[in-house]
Amino acid sequence: MECLCLFWALEKLNYFLEGCVFEVITDCTAVKSLLNMKIPNIHMLRWQIAIQEYKGNMTIVHKDGKVHKNAYGVSRWPLPNDIFNPSYLPEEASPQLPLEGISVTD
């Protein structure tokens, strides 16, 4: 997903980035290894070709998520189990087996 974000950003900011030296700081190791993949799938190959245009001017730096102070915090924030959570599962709807109704016989 972050590889797609980098591809999108480079495509949209091409006018401003052309001829500039810049650095991409990410906590995703896939972004850093994108340019070094030997056999990428079709989407990664497309992104790899587009990103190679900036290879001389762009450096990709991996920074661990714990020390990456300005990481996008909304995606890391845990969601409560309430009706506003897209994966909400009410307590009464959670599947449970009635243990007293199961008998084990030979």
UniProtKB/TrEMBL annotation:
Pfam families in the record: RT_RNaseH
Q: Name one GO molecular function term.
A: hydrolase activity
Q: Does the keyword Nuclease apply?
A: yes
Keywords, alphabetical: Endonuclease, Hydrolase, Nuclease, Nucleotidyltransferase, RNA-directed DNA polymerase, Transferase
Give the highest taxon in the source lineage.
Eukaryota
Domain (Reverse transcriptase RNase H-like) ranges: 2-54
Protein name (record) = Reverse transcriptase RNase H-like domain-containing protein
Please report the organism this UniProt entry assigns to the protein: Austropuccinia psidii MF-1
